[in-house]
Amino acid sequence: MPDPNGFLRYDRRLPARRPVPVRISDWREVYPPAGEELVREQATRCMDCGIPFCHDGCPLGNRIPDWNDLVRTGNWDAAVESLHATNNFPEFTGRLCPAPCEAACVLGLGGQQPVTIKQVEVEIADAAVARDGLRPRPASVPTGRSVAVVGSGPAGLAAAQQLARAGHTVTVYERDDAIGGLLRYGIPDFKLEKQHIDRRLAQLTAEGVRFRTGVAVGVDVTAEQVRAEHDAVLLACGALQGRDTPQTPGRALRGVHQAMAHLVAANRVVAAAGDGRPALAVLPDGTPIDAAGKHVVIIGGGDTAADCLGVAHRQGAAGVHQLDLYPEPPQSRDAERDPWPTWPWVLRNYPAHEEGGDRVFAVAVQEFVDDGTGQVRSVRIAEVTVEKVDGRRVVTPLPGSEREIPADLVLLAIGFEGTEQQPLLAQFGVARNARGAVDARGDWQAADGVFVAGDMHRGASLIVWAIAEGRAAAAAVHAYLGGVGELPAPVDPARQPLAAR
Ligand SMILES: Cc1cc2nc3c(=O)[nH]c(=O)nc-3n(C[C@H](O)[C@H](O)[C@H](O)COP(=O)(O)OP(=O)(O)OC[C@H]3O[C@@H](n4cnc5c(N)ncnc54)[C@H](O)[C@@H]3O)c2cc1C
Ligand code: SF4
Could you tell me if the CB of 60 is within 6 A of ligand 2? Predict the structure, then answer.
């Protein structure tokens, strides 16, 4: 029986982050482990409210009150089982999820701080590793059916694991040289050390999943070849088409880059360095894209921008400005605008923000300014207002508000325009919609025998949605192949986050 008064006895507490001067001198994760006492105390704050809205807040339908109580009572093995019943990779979500479940926690109704659900999740995930090293669970009976999964991000990997455990022979095709999608070369190590991915890959491999890296489907192998080899295909190619700003004067100057170019280059040198100090980051053609000693301007306000900020500090930037088009959000939920239990628009401070840099809100770049040699030397910005007119965003600069900010390196983190236009789409007979995503029917098929999941289907989203869609699409593939029984399907293709409007 959960403790109905736990939240009255204990305040919300998270483990202390590693000190800023220490953590920006390496690439290790920002959070140390919480320690059992703190986690059990915090799990005690969950009162098992009867109608756990956190379930609906979590796209995976994680059984949060169940595992909170198991942790509270020190029943770690059962907590590990319960968490893995709904989530293939809690070590990813426990570290990286923005935790919409916490925004939906019933404690928020009475003005209390939510349970530290995500922290409890990551501690259970790490306990699983400590206890049995992520024991493989191979299928006992093979079905003789074969599935190709294209793309090895969280959506592809979750689907691959579900299908392999159901007895299908699964091959994951990945065009990169390593498995993991954005988890591998997009998200920096200070948010997710790559040992977590490698451990899961060892488990998937032991469960029979085959990996083919360095293979771009549609280029190195045709869709026809893939279809000939497999009974079903799941596309999980992400939404990696970066939004650009070609109309802004000076965009072609040296030193102005897509944020992902910076992150991938940085993550690759960290991966190559092992425990050593990484070399300077360069683009594939050898052009330096390192922030060391530079004035850096990051344009954008989301995860990608915050990751660039943390990378710039670790590379030794001289100074960093992060520019956001929108006004500064409120510190706490505006209940009129975003009533509980929806995801509120509030100021989100990532650990990277406490490491330094200046955030500038409600501004837009008017020009990238040339130093006379074709290299950017500054950005000219103006204060702006942003309105929605007939569903379109209209940005209006305020006259007389222009100023310059020094910039040797400018990083565009202004979002993604959906999945890339690439040969694979036409070869499989699927197309991008107006949002750049690939639509799926109710059974996750985009074309006969071709299923789609994750960011490629939703547009740029979150890891928790990618895993949820990967699991649901795997259930649909299993049914299509005539598999015995049903696999869990936490979401359908039309499912959206909890919202008031
Ligand atoms: C910088 C950054 C930081 C982020 N931080 C967070 C965070 O903290 N928390 C969070 O929840 N979400 C975060 N996200 C979002 C999250 O990473 C994505 O929503 C998630 O990775 C999507 O998973 P996916 O499997 O759909 O696609 P992806 O992870 O994008 O993987 C798609 C894979 O498909 C491969 N591929 C594409 N085409 C082909 C082809 N033709 N043949 C073979 N392979 C192909 C790609 O190389 C890639 O590896 C972040 C995103 C970015 C860009
Ligand atoms: S996956 Fe995200 S939403 Fe679900 S329980 Fe974990 S932190 Fe909450």
Answer: yes
User: What was the pLDDT predicted at 501?
Assistant: 63
Q: How far apart are CA 277 and CA 50, in angstroms?
A: 51
H helices of 252-331, where? 259-273, 303-315
* HEC-encoded secondary structure of 401-419: CCEEEECCEEEECCCECCC
Binding site membership of 305 for ligand 1 (Cβ less than 6 Å): no
Structure tokens at 373: 């040699």
Q: Is the CB of 64 under 6 A from ligand 2?
A: yes
Tell me, in angstroms, the distance from the centre of ligand 2 to residue 414's CA: 25
Q: For the chain, what is the radius of gyration of the CA atoms?
A: 23
Overall average pLDDT of the 63-91 stretch: 97
DSSP H or E segment with residue 223: helix 223-229
Give 498's contacts (C-beta < 8 A, 6+ positions apart).
Answer: 56, 57, 100, 104, 341, 342, 343
What is the value of pTM for the model shown?
0.97
Ligand nearest to the CA of 103: 2
> pLDDT tens digits, residue range 104-148?
999 998 889 999 999 999 999 999 999 988 999 999 999 999 999
Q: What sections of 294-406 are H helices per DSSP?
A: 303-315
Which atom number of ligand 1 is nearest to the Cα of residue 457?
Answer: 26
Q: Give the C-alpha separation, 317 to 490, whole Å.
A: 43
Q: Which atom of ligand 1 is nearest to the CA of 240?
A: 30
Return the pLDDT at 304: 97
Q: Looking at the DSSP assignment, which residues form a beta bridge with residue 242? A: 416
Are the C-beta atoms of residues 299 and 359 closer than 8 Å to each other? no
> What mean pLDDT do residues 3-30 have?
95
Give the list of residues 6+ apart from residue 12 with CB closer than 8 angstroms, or none: 42, 45, 113, 114, 115, 116
Query: What is the rounded CA–CA span in Å between residue 68 and residue 1?
Result: 11
